[in-house]
Design a protein that fits this description.
five-stranded parallel beta sheet, five-stranded antiparallel beta sheet, about 260 residues, about 25% strand, alpha/beta
Length: about 260
């Protein structure tokens, strides 16, 4: 029996696990290694694509949540849950492109390939954004944070019955399938990991809020948005203060 048997930690990457420069601190790395050796399960829950994790200096030992909770895979890459968008998003993208000149870029994310449209390109954007492999989400990059918030409010009002909208950084709005997200994948993990008795989730931005609410203990890092802190069960140290190491070395022992 390991000290951390039955615990699963799900961590966002940017602004939660990583520090400035996108690096993982030695303190976090050491704590994750110890946690896994002592029976704990640690996995990432990110808006990024699965291939982004290939260069990480550690390997998750539980299923990984990627593409903002629309894809759940084993550490070896086997798909456990796939939630791509239906092909009825054309009118939604057309509306955004026609009414929001402050949109700078639009990314269509598949499970592997991505397509990018940049404002000012003369070519027909539909050839990149509206066709191709199954689409898991769109990322819409605006000029300013206020632009992104205004766009999100409008999209939720007009199309919120069809798609989820949230942000993972100030000027980037993400659009994905209704009833998808990090929380949906977390609930699926409860079904397939019966030995886990406590799920602890950590995050910093709007797209983490559903996951923090669905977890047994939702932790907002100290640098998280106010709305994330309000939704969390606990507000812990900042990412620069090695938040994951804090969960492993301080929080879980206090629960015991």
């Amino acid at each position: 029996m390991g000290y951390y048997d039955g615990y699963l930690i799900l961590s966002d990457i940017d602004g939660t696990l990583t520090i400035r420069g996108g690096k993982i601190s030695p303190e976090n790395l050491s704590a994750i290694e110890h946690f896994q050796k002592e029976g704990g399960k640690f996995a990432l829950a990110t808006g990024r694509n699965p291939d982004y994790l290939d260069g990480f200096p550690f390997k998750s030992n539980a299923p990984i949540i990627t593409v903002n909770g629309t894809l759940l895979t084993t550490p070896e890459g086997e798909t456990l849950l796939s939630l791509p968008m239906e092909e009825d998003f054309h009118d939604v993208i057309d509306y955004m492109m026609a009414n929001y000149p402050e949109i700078r870029r639009v990314y269509r994310r598949g499970s592997i390939a991505s397509y990018e449209w940049v404002r000012g390109e003369d070519m027909e954007y539909a050839s990149k954004l509206l066709t191709g492999e199954p689409c898991y989400k769109f990322v819409i990059v605006c000029d300013t944070e206020n632009d992104a918030l205004r766009l999100m409010d409008d999209m939720v009002r007009r199309f919120g019955d069809r798609y989820e909208y949230d942000r993972s950084w100030p000027i980037g709005l993400e659009m994905h399938r209704k009833h998808s997200g990090k929380d949906v994948c977390l609930q699926h993990l409860r079904k397939i990991l019966p030995d886990v008795h406590t799920i602890i989730a950590a995050g910093d931005y709007e797209n983490d809020i559903p996951m923090l609410r669905a977890a047994d203990i939702g932790c907002a890092v100290g640098n998280a948005l106010p709305s994330v802190k309000e939704a969390a069960d606990r507000v812990i140290v900042t990412n620069e203060e090695h938040a994951i190491a804090y969960i492993i070395n301080e929080l879980i022992p206090s629960l015991k």
